[in-house]
Every structure is written in structure tokens, then in C-alpha cells.
Amino acid sequence: MKHIINDKKIAIEAMLHSYQFEHQGRLSIDLKDHIIYYKKDSGVSLISGGGSGHEPAHFGYVGKGMLTASVNGALFTPPYPDRIMRAVELTDNGDGVLFIVKNFASDVEMFTEAKKRAEASGHKVEMVIVCDDVSVENKDTYSKRKRGVAGTVLAHKILGYFSQIGKSLTELKVIADEFIPHLYTLGVALSSAELPNTDRFFSLGENEVYYGIGIHGEKGYRKESFESSEQLAIELYNKLKKLHQFKQGEHYAFLINGLGATPLLEQYVFTHDIQRLAVLDKINIDFIKTGTQLSSYNMQGISLTCLKLTDPLFEIALQADVDASHW
Amino acid sequence: MKHIINDKKIAIEAMLHSYQFEHQGRLSIDLKDHIIYYKKDSGVSLISGGGSGHEPAHFGYVGKGMLTASVNGALFTPPYPDRIMRAVELTDNGDGVLFIVKNFASDVEMFTEAKKRAEASGHKVEMVIVCDDVSVENKDTYSKRKRGVAGTVLAHKILGYFSQIGKSLTELKVIADEFIPHLYTLGVALSSAELPNTDRFFSLGENEVYYGIGIHGEKGYRKESFESSEQLAIELYNKLKKLHQFKQGEHYAFLINGLGATPLLEQYVFTHDIQRLAVLDKINIDFIKTGTQLSSYNMQGISLTCLKLTDPLFEIALQADVDASHW
Asked: Which domain holds residue B142?
């Protein structure tokens, strides 16, 4: 497979450099440490990050009303603690820092170490771990297999709103603990991602799909012969319905996420199938968004995120205006 | 190849339905005629459209400061005149209508016929034909091979701004005639698009690229063995440089457009190569934007658009705030 890059080692820097050039005036860059950020005069700094290859996550969500900084690691590899620590130094104005971390062992390890170091330097830091992937139905909430995937973008948006309106670090942590347990995502692959100079992570037959895949090439729970968008919608929707135990009149937010190489037309066709299923169950879709929000590089596939809106404020947070390029 | 759709015949309707549902309150839909629009109290209505399969073009650009309506045809097939005429009826508030049309024979034919009918019904209509594709170096400005491609999105933005600040239909036509001759685009494919139930339009070797391709599977001008992003950047940049005759100190806007299946990381790496070439030539990049703005469905590839900013107002127009989901 052809990849439009030069040297793999400098691809991340080239990407961040040109992204910040596009958004100069609004966003700043620490090129050495792969950080995109902006300066807030007051309010909690929200820092997220992880491996590269998931664009537009996370730098596309840096801006007023969403993240304060993103830190990029290498392809599918989280950033080192010193880089995260540098993002803390660049953005903490004294009101503290909240890390929003996708639940992968190595991501959690890097951010935990950075938290320790930042606290030792006098910063107030809290950490929120997003673990929305329900592909492995494990009852341990923070089991290693309950990965952090596309739902993380909703967490950025909700927490970004509450930070913007002045909530404290302690309050943000309470808010996160309130909605994250109700945030579920399930994905399906039509093809594996393929990184530069790397083999495909798994192979699928010409007409096969793979349910429950992760965003780093992790394998799914079942392969099946592909028929239609509706077939995929029914599988993903029903799994989330069962976990949420949808009841008539309840309020939900949905995110339909293209995993990289899925045409927007197909993402919206799938969305239409989800909407029709929600109508049958008489649940309220108070918020819905479709797009390539957290990709698995060039994977063909889609994921469905469903958040139960246990508080009307969460809908307000999702609908609020924001100054981020890719929300 | 697998496509996340159900029946090909209703895919466009499903897509438009779910897009409008996402943007309800801000945008309206005429589902029968495949129109996404909003109501302007005053000012010229800007209507664009064309075949589907180029998402987010054009519905992603409907909103305050950009298009007033978009009309979708079938996949890679322009809409019929009666649908365009319907968009005129829905959005003309008496200040007239400007059609922004990509230069393909059938698109021009459909919009010309709609213009005739709209004028017969008493509407004031002007038409702007975007012909930015320079892959065939033909001196006839409106030659059939001088197609309308990604530069069309810059035309939406510039004309949308001037419509928003109250320019008349006649003035908008004059403005379009001023910048469109300086709007050039050139693309390269790493793979052919592949529509549902259709074969690939052309085939490329495992390590081959194709310069000068169109957005509907039209063939390019040269195949070459692929080496790097820099190689592609040099080919596209130098062709545009030669046509514009770049001179030190001149002002330009660039659009780097992913053609569908190209990861954002690769788009930004390519952008970085373009920036470096522009620095060598000492031209000013006053505006730059990278993203999948006008796709060729699931084609892997990229295009480079370069607009010479003959008036500082064009930069202001490109930078102005806008209420469109995909700008």
C-alpha cells in the first residue's frame, strides 16, 4: 500500500507543523514535544493525547470550549511522560489540569507517570480514563479490554464545555465520573488499518466484516459475511441497546464515527439506519454527529457511540459552540 | 469492495435525511428534490450542487457565509434542472440567485437549463463556472477538459462572504470573474475510486501513482512509480508554479484536498512539503487549508489548489467566520 509520507520518523512533526501553520494566531505549537495548545487566562487546562494515526484526534479538538492541549506520540504509540509534563507546564494557569486518557495500558501508564511528576512540581492534576469500547463484555469497568475509543471525543466536548463555563478541577472530575460509565462504543471493520512500513493487522475476506475491532488493529469478536449497512447497524445498535437497556422516552446522544477510509456518504447512510432503529425504540436522540472523528488511520469501517444523557446539561454541553477545527 | 449502503437507489436520500437531522434548526431539507438549504431574509442566494459521491461537497458548505442551497444528483451525475429550479424557488428572496457550477458538460447543461426556466419564472439568475483543473494544459479557458474540482470550495467561500456582506448579483458575478481565472488545481491518484456496483475506473500498479486525474474516475496525464510525498508535491506544485508564474512577494491561497480515503496525517505531511516549496520561492501563503473537502468517493489521492490573491479582500473572504459544517 502507498502512503503519502517521506521519512516515517519525521511524519508526525511535519503534520503538526502544517496543522499549526494553518491555525496560527489561534493555536500554538511545541514542535519538539509534539504539543498543540492554546493559552487560557483562567480555568482548568484539559490535556489529551495518545498515539498518532487517529487524526483528527486529538489536535483537531484543541480550542476554546474543548481541549487546551493535545500531545502526539508516534504512530499508535502514546507520548512519553516528559512530553505530557511539558504540556502541563505550557497550559496550567494555576487552576489545575485534567488529563483525558483513552484506556490502553501504555497510555494510562504514561499519563500516570506524568501526573506524578506534575504533582511533584506543584501542579494540581486529575485524570479521567475513557473506557467506552464495549466489544468485550467484561464486567470489570476498567478491564484492560474496555478500551478508550471514539467516545473520547464526546468526553473532550462535554468536559471542554464545563471547563469553559468555569467549573473547578474537582467539579470536572465529578462530572466525568457521572457520564463516562454511560458512554459505550462498538466498531466494525471492513478492512484492517495499514500503517507505513507495516503489514495489515488482520485479514478479511473480500466480503467479510469484523465486529468489535479496536483502533490499533486489535481483533474483533466475530467475522461475518457482509450484506448491508442495515446489518451492521442492527448488530452495533442492539449490543448498545442491551447494555443501556433502552427505555421509551429516555434521552441519548449518538456519535457515528468513520474509522478512516469510509466515505462520508456511507457514514450518513449508516446513521440513517441507526436513526430508524432509535425511532422504533421510541428513545430520544437529543444529539447526533457523524464524521471521521477518531480514526484508525486508513481502516475502512465505522463505530457507533451512544451516551445516555442522565442530565440535560450534557446535551447543552454537546450542542455548545466551540472553536475547534474538527468538532 | 464492500460499501456501507443498502439499496443504491435510496442511499442519497438516506444521507441527506441524516445530515439534515444532525443540523436541524439551522438547515432545512427538500427530501424529494435532494436539496439542503436555509432561508436568508435578504441577499443573493448561492446555489451549488452536482453529482453525489463528492462529500462533504456540497451540502457541507451550506450555511451563513457560504452556500444558501446545495442540490444533489445521483452518484457522479448532476441533478436535473427541475431540482435546481426548486432550489431557486426555495431560496430566492428577490435579490437574485447565483449558480456556482463545476465545469463538466452535463453539469453546465443542467444548470443552464435551470437558469433558463428560472428566468422565465421571473427570477434573476447568474451563473459562475469553476474550471480550476489544469491537468490538461489547454489554452481555451472553458475547454471541456478544464474541469471544475476542489477549487470550487474556495469559490463557495469567497462568494459566500461577499454575498453575506450584501454584494448584489451583478457585483458577485464581477468578483467571480476576477478570481476564477487565477484558481488552479491539480490532483494525483494512488488508487481509483470505486462506486457501489461499479468497477474501478482505472487500475494502478501496487507502486504506481497517476497525475492529473479527475474526480469522476477520469484518467490522468502520466503514471509514475511512487516514491514519496515530496515527489508528488514537487510535480503538482511546479505545474501550478509554472502556470501562475510565481514571483517573490506575491500572495497566494492554498487548498490541500484529500480525495476520499487519504488519511489526514498524510494530507498534512504533503501540506508540509508544499509549504517548504513556497518558502523557497519566497511567495506568501496568506491562507492555507488541508482536509477532505471535495472527494472522489473513496479514491486514495490528493489535490493541490492554488489561488493567486489579486486583491487582499479575497484573503479576508477566505478567513471570515462561517456557519457551515465542513469548512
From this structure: 15-181
CB neighbour burial string for B137-167, b if at least 16 within 10 angstroms, e if fewer: eeeeeeeeebbbbbbbbbbbbbbbbbbbeeb
The domain that holds A294 is classified in CATH as: 3.30.1180.20
Q: Are B176 and B217 in a shared domain?
A: no
Rounded-to-integer distance, Cα A202 and Cα A296, Å: 13
Does residue A57 form part of some domain?
yes
Residue of B61, B264, B286 to mutate, testing the A interface (most A Cβ within 10 Å of its Cβ): B264
Q: Which residues of A are catalytic?
A: 54, 216
Q: Are residues A113 and A202 in the same domain?
A: no
Q: What is the pTM of this model?
A: 0.97
Q: What are the distances in angstroms from CA A13 to CA A29, A34, A261, B31?
A: 10, 7, 23, 44
Judge if A171 and A223 occupy the same domain.
no
Domain presence at residue B8: no
Residue of B nearest to A11 (CA): B269
Cα nearest neighbour of B56 on chain A:
A264
**A263 neighbourhood in chain B, CB within 8 Å:** 53, 55, 260-261, 295, 297-298
- Report, in angstroms and rounded to the nearest whole number, the Rg of chain A calculated over CA atoms: 19
Query: Which residue in the set B14, B266, B289 is minimally distant from A272, CB to CB?
Result: B14
Query: Which among B5, B53, B273 has CB closest to A229?
Result: B5
Contact B297 A263 (CB under 8 A): yes
Catalytic residue flag (residue B272): no
Fill in the amino acid letter for B234: I
Q: What is the pLDDT along chain A (327 residues), one digit of tens a residue?
A: 899 999 988 999 999 999 999 999 999 999 999 999 999 999 999 999 999 999 999 999 999 999 999 999 999 999 999 999 999 999 999 999 999 999 999 999 999 999 999 999 999 999 999 999 999 755 555 555 689 999 999 999 999 999 999 999 999 999 999 999 999 999 999 999 999 988 899 999 999 999 999 999 999 999 999 999 999 999 999 999 999 999 999 999 999 999 999 999 999 999 999 999 999 999 999 999 999 999 999 999 999 999 999 999 999 999 999 999 999
CB contact under 8 A, A209 and B302: no
Q: Are B121 and B70 in contact (CB under 8 A)?
A: no
